[in-house]
Design brief:
The protein is of the alpha/beta class. The protein has 14 helices and eight strands. The chain has a four-stranded parallel β-sheet, with helices on both faces. A four-stranded parallel β-sheet has the order 6-5-7-8, with helices on both faces.
């Protein structure tokens, strides 16, 4: 396929957290707000005069670093000095420990305006949970931003932020829908890059290029002969490394769906406001109920997550599912093992189970695993006459 016009530019933006557009956003006088988890509503960090940056540690040099340790390493190197605040959630242990270092060690972030805030997130999905979550977001996000930075947190401001986020969400979702085609005009690697730049750049500075990319893909002609052997859904914990997806695809498995912590199937859903609902309640409801995080441990939620994965696999015509978890990730380590049993048994989908480092130094071992998985799924398809 012909190269996407903005792909190299997008790739360059992912080479450092303090990228060109982040610097431009700061030069424009905006407040830069860092976050690490879906439960910190990105939309509330995009209020007027602010922009959200989902933190990553690209090109981390420590081969034994998992996600939180890699973020801390980058912070100690001065790589996050550009953020004016870090808003975290009491969710996974790794990101909580990272936040505590930022909060209690004065010399980690060298920024005179730097502040931190923790938000408690319920472990259940019900009306009481939505109400609690809404109160937490009011105190720990809206009041925090208003009191510390003078941010406008009115309903009107939240509605404007929802409008801006929905524009980006809809563009990325429409691009992702092309992956449902038999011979998609976009690779999983390219889509991963597009999704990530939408999370780590001020939206007002990236939206035009995202829109241009959508129009380009609408007219893009895929190769006559598909260069993949099978189609897979990638699920799991934090994965902000497009090269991990490139490795999978180099083994013959096209990644057509991405239900992981940095994927589009959660983060780029359209935010709806129900009739008579105030915007903050709509935000709390959206982020709590759309999450497929493994921290929800009620039996009905665990079963529902497996069905969601199977439904996505069917919708995107996946032949198999790769479930990954970062090393030391408590929730997804359990979830990955359960997925490995339940998805083949109850839904008929072959599963490749991978525990990986945040920085994938063992690419040879992973390549062997992925190649063996592709061959096994190919054999299954032959046996089934597909």
């Amino acid at each position: 396929m012909r190269d996407l016009k903005h792909l190299i530019y997008f790739e360059d933006l992912l080479q450092e957290a303090n990228n060109e557009l982040v610097r431009k956003g700061k030069e424009d006088g905006n407040i830069c707000l860092g976050y690490t988890c879906y439960f910190m509503p990105e939309v509330l960090l995009d209020l007027p005069g602010c922009f959200a940056v989902r933190l990553r540690a690209p090109r981390c040099t420590s081969p034994d670093c998992h996600y939180g340790r890699s973020l801390l390493e980058r912070a100690l190197e001065g790589g996050f000095n550009f953020i004016d605040a870090q808003l975290a959630t009491e969710t996974c242990t790794v990101t909580c420990r990272f936040q505590e270092h930022l909060e209690y060690m004065d010399d980690v972030i060298n920024n005179a305006t730097f502040k931190t805030s923790f938000t408690d997130v319920p472990f259940k999905k019900n009306e009481n949970s939505i109400d609690h979550y809404r109160k937490q977001l009011k105190i720990k996000v809206l009041d925090f931003l208003a009191n510390e930075f003078g941010v406008d947190t009115s309903d009107k401001a939240i509605l404007k932020a929802i409008e801006i986020n929905n524009e980006v969400n809809d563009i990325v979702t429409e691009i992702g829908n092309f992956r449902k085609l038999e011979n998609p005009p976009i690779t999983g690697y390219e889509f991963s890059v597009i999704t990530l730049v939408s999370m780590v750049c001020p939206k007002y500075l990236i939206v035009d290029k995202l829109r241009e990319t959508l129009e380009e893909i609408k007219k893009r002609e895929p190769d006559d002969k598909p260069n993949f052997k099978i189609r897979v859904l990638l699920a799991g914990s934090e994965n902000d490394d497009p090269d991990f997806i490139k490795l999978i695809e180099s083994c013959g498995a096209l990644v057509v769906a991405d239900r992981h912590c940095y994927g589009s199937l959660e983060a780029r859903q359209h935010i709806n406001i129900e009739e008579g609902e105030d915007p903050l309640t709509a935000v709390a409801r959206h982020y709590l109920l759309t999450s497929q995080c493994a921290r929800f441990m009620e039996q009905q939620e665990m079963r529902h997550r497996k069905k969601v994965l199977a439904d996505y696999a069917k919708e995107y015509k996946a032949d198999g599912i790769i479930v990954e978890s970062n090393k030391f990730c408590e929730y997804w380590s359990f979830e990955r093992m359960i997925d490995t049993i339940v998805l083949p048994r109850d839904f008929g989908y072959p599963v490749c189970s991978i525990e990986k480092e945040y920085i994938n130094t063992a690419s040879g071992q992973l390549r062997t695993r992925f190649q063996a998985f592709v061959e096994s799924v190919e054999l299954k398809k032959i046996q089934e006459g597909k």
